[in-house]
Amino acid sequence: MTRHGDTPFGPLTTLIHAGRDTAAQHGFVNPPIVRGSTVLSPTVADLEGHTGRYSYGRRGSPTVDALTDALKEIEGGAHVALVPSGLNAVTTALLAVLGAGDHLLMVDTVYQPTRHFCDTFLRRMGVAVSYYDPHVGADISDLMRPETKAVFVESPGSLTFEVQDVPAIAGAVHARGAAVIMDNTWATPLLFRAHDHGVDLSLTAGTKYLGGHADLLLGTISANAAYAGALKAAHGALGLCVGPEDLFLALRGLRTLGVRLAHHQAAGLRVARWLASRPDVARVMHPALETDPGHELWKRDFQGASGLFAIELAPGSKAAVAAFLDGLKLFGLGYSWGGFESLAIPFEAGPIRTASRWSPLGPTIRIHIGLEEVEDLIADLDAGLARYAAAR
Length: 392
Ligand SMILES: *Cc1c(COP(=O)(O)O)cnc(C)c1O
Fold this sequence. Notes:
The chain is α/β, with parallel strands linked by helices. The protein folds into 2 domains: 11-255, Type I PLP-dependent aspartate aminotransferase-like (Major domain) (Aspartate Aminotransferase, domain 2); 257-391, Aspartate Aminotransferase, domain 1 (Alpha-Beta Complex). It has 14 helices and 11 strands. It has helices at 11-17, 44-49, 62-75, 86-97, 112-124, 140-143, 166-175, 188-191, 225-238, 244-255, 257-276, 295-301, 318-326, 374-391; strands at residues 79-83, 103-107, 128-132, 148-154, 179-183, 201-205, 219-223, 281-285, 308-313, 343-347, 364-368. The chain has a 7-stranded mixed β-sheet with strand order 1-7-6-5-4-2-3, sandwiched between helices. β5 (179-183), α8 and β6 (201-205) form a beta-alpha-beta unit. α3 (62-75) packs parallel to α10 and α13 (318-326) runs antiparallel to α14 (374-391). The longest helix is centred in the C-terminal third of the chain and has 20 residues, at 257-276. It is globular and about 75 Å long. The relative contact order is 0.12. Residues 1-5 have low confidence and may be disordered. The structure holds pyridoxal-5'-phosphate. The site of pyridoxal-5'-phosphate has 13 residues, from α4.
C-alpha cells in the first residue's frame, strides 16, 4: 500500500492508509521504530550539502515522518510539527507568532495551563494578553488592537463546553491580518476540520484521543500554508522532538481513532441523555444535546462529538460530591482523558475566569466516557447519584 495523497477516500480510510509506505517497510504493515541522534553521510560533500533525507535525529527521522505524513493528510494543512506534550503544542504555536509588543486575545474558557503560560511567560516576554467571552463571534473585531497578532480559540471550552463561532471569528481576525490559533483537542481533526473553518494553527494534545490508551504524552500542531514557515522556525529553534516509542504508539492509536471516537460519541451521548433525565442533575454540558446552548453551532461546524462532557448537580455539599465520586467502581478519579477508560473529576471553573461569568448553583463534575459497556457505566453513576442524594 502506498500513500494516497489527495485521494477521494473518506476519513476512516485515510486513517488506515495515511503515512504508510509498506514497500519501503519491506512489506511490514507498520513502520520500524528508528532510534538515533547521529545520521552518517558518505562524503564531506554530502555532509555539507545536506544531500541525505535526514541530517540529525532532532530534525526528523522515518518514525517522525510516518506520523507527520499521516497527520498532514488528516488535518489538510501544509505542515505538521510534533512536540512532547499538548501544553507544549499550545506554547509552541503561541511562540511561533508572538513577540514583544504584540497583543494576544485569549478565550476565557481556555485550558487552565494555557492561561498560566499567558499570564506568566508571555507577559514576561512583553506580550499583552486579554481574555474574551467565548460567545464573542464576529464582535472579536471590537476587541482587536493594531498590535493584536493572534486570537486563540478553544471549542468547546475546557470544563464547561461552550461552542465558539470559529468561522465568524476567523473571518473578523483575518480581515485585520492576525492569526487564528485553535486548541482542537476535544474534537480532533476528525470531528472539526479546523483549517476549513479558517484556523491558521490547529493544535491537539495527542495525549488524549490520538494516543487513546493513557500511555503517552504528545502534542500536534498543524499549520496552513501562511503559517507553515513560522511553525517550522519556532519548532526548530526551540529544539523540540519526541521519542520514537511515543511516536510509534501515537501512530498505532491513529489507526483506531475513527472507531474509538464513534464509540466514545455514542456511549457519551447515551450517558449524557440518561444524566439529563435524573432529578439530582441540574444541567448537562454537552454540545451534541439538542438542549445545549451551543448545539446549533456544533451541528453546523462539527462532524461529531467526543466522549468528554460535564454535569452540574443539584446543590449539595463537598462531602456529598466525595460520597458520589469516591464510591464509583468503574470511573477513575484522575486528570487527562481520551483513553479507553472512563473518568470523573470535580472542578470549579468560576474563580479563574475574568471575561465571562460562571457561577453554577451546584457542584460541577467533568466526565469522560470510555469504551466500557454503557449499562455498567450508567449503573455505576446511578449508585453514585443515590449516594449524593443521601448525603446532600
Ligand atoms: C490535556 C489538554 C492539554 C494538554 O495536554 P498535555 O499532553 O497534558 O500537556 C491541552 N489542551 C487541552 C484542551 C487539554 O485537554
